Amino acid sequence: MKKGLMNFLKNNWFLILIIVIIGGSFIYSNEAQEATTKTNEVNISQVVEQVKNGQVESVSVNGTRLDITLKEAVNGNKNEFAFKEADISLTQYGITPDKVKIDIKDTPKSSPWVEVLSFILPVLLMGGLLWFMLRQAQGANNQAMSFGKSRARMNASNANIKFADVAGSEESKKDLIEVVDFLQSPAKYRELGAEIPKGVLLIGPPGTGKTLLAKAVAGEAGVPFFSISGSEFVEMFVGVGASRVRDLFAKAKRNAPCIIFIDEIDAVGRQRGAGLGGSHDEREQTLNQILVELDGFDTDTGVIVMAATNRPDVLDPALLRPGRFDRRVLIDLPDIKEREAILQVHAKGKPFTEEVNLNVIAQKTPGFSGADLKNVLNESAILAARNSKKAISMTELNDAVERVVLGPERKTRVIHEDEKKITAYHEAGHALVSHILPNGDPVHKISIISRGRALGYTWNMPEQDKLLYSKSHFEDEIAILLSGREAELMIFGELTTGAQNDLQQASKIARKMVTEFGMSEKIGAMSFHGKDEMVFLGRDLAESKNYSEKTAQVIDDEVAVIITKAEAKAHEVLTKSKDLLSKIADVLMEKETIEREEFEKLITDFSVA
Ligand code: ADP
Ligand code: MG
Ligand code: ZN
Fold it and tell me: Which of 63, 161, 473, 587 could form a disulfide with 219 if both were Cys (CB 3.0 to 4.6 A apart)?
């Protein structure tokens, strides 16, 4: 506390100086005022003289003081004062009410108490202020202290998460078993002189179970798990992030063997020196501290640092150097078998009807992450509860998949008859072109019931998980995206805003084809996907250009060419099957949704007829 006070005085000398100056000037001004009073002081004989000469307007007795008010200003001052000597009476001096107005005030204007108070009050005020500030500063100190303390959570409850709770990801688990083994029996490795990685970086898209895997490693090894999220570092005072890192590592070392888990490390681990706010921002200090700590401990201590990211491309290369996060574990989106396994894990404890087959759901959900699948099961349970059912049936599961993909249906939205017709043709256009083009995915469902922000939707999905995409696949995809707009144009001769989202997606794909996949003739086999985006501006806001203005022009031209070609393709398909388009649109207006089987039947019936 004493030290704290000293520190406070040291840190706040400027403030204290200001207070002293203000207080001093306050006291000084009091004295100065008294001084002006004194200059006006006259002695009693002068007063007597003035009264005799009839210069005095009035005399007022004010305790020990006489205040004389003159009729006319003398030296520009109408008020003069004289101190009354001890028990003199005014009559003794011949100052009588017939000569001048005399006013006697019983209560002295400045009693001793007032004197005392006027001295003590400022002191009290200043003291109080000082005390208040001290308290504030101390509070802030304490707070700063607890900011500095890492908010890492030590989670005993996580200890019961095991690899068995993580479905699929067998490859990743294999990589991590080694880490578990080291944590359990470090001696075995040390004796052989084997060097154990300090840092393990888990890389994968969001929701693929990175956090879950890290917890499972701790659970399998039976060691404490300290987790902190990168985004938590990036807040408040400068220097706090760094001290939090220091504290986290200190805490971990005390609890070794254990795991430190830094989630979303890209939030602090972005490339240094690229920020706009000067090079020494908070984030960099935190990152530097992480690097220092990583270098500063031996694997002997039994601490293993795990981190997770979905943006390995933006990480500072320093993090990936040997002796830091040199072990990398990739986690991919689950394939069909893994999806089924994940569904099984989260199906535990939920009642299902007999006919439920999770394999069917797994088939329907390529591209879903583990978190999405968990969400599907949760949504299905909610839907079943809402429908007052005792068990979850296939209906709820299918609805839940759609909800997760497309957002909830909005059946209550009233759609004008005209809009309904336009939407029907728009969606029929998407569905038809998707069906006819060789690279189009099968149409699962068409609907003109609005979902989320879309008025209608066509849901087409690949048969299997796709890893490679060809140029013609993208070309067809763009044509399918543009076919809704094309259908509107063909039937109504006018465009609406309904195609906005389609156009955005189409442009995005076309641009990627040119700048990233080397799929345009004029640009050729070059990729301009910049790694060096402006870090401080965040992810996609400022993708910096690493090509010339001239190249930019060529890129724009090439994108336009791709779009125009796709537009023509969509137009051609739709013109050829205009009658079929109208047929689908009619059915759609009548039934509002068409499922896959119905759609396929509609098309075969039509071609037979
Ligand atoms: P990430 O950290 O990669 O974003 P999480 O680990 O937070 O993903 O996953 C979110 C949730 O999704 C987990 O809590 C878990 O319930 C579920 N999940 C994800 N992947 C799997 C998996 N392979 N097996 C079981 N559940 C999973
Ligand atoms: Mg996570
Ligand atoms: Zn559309």
Answer: 161
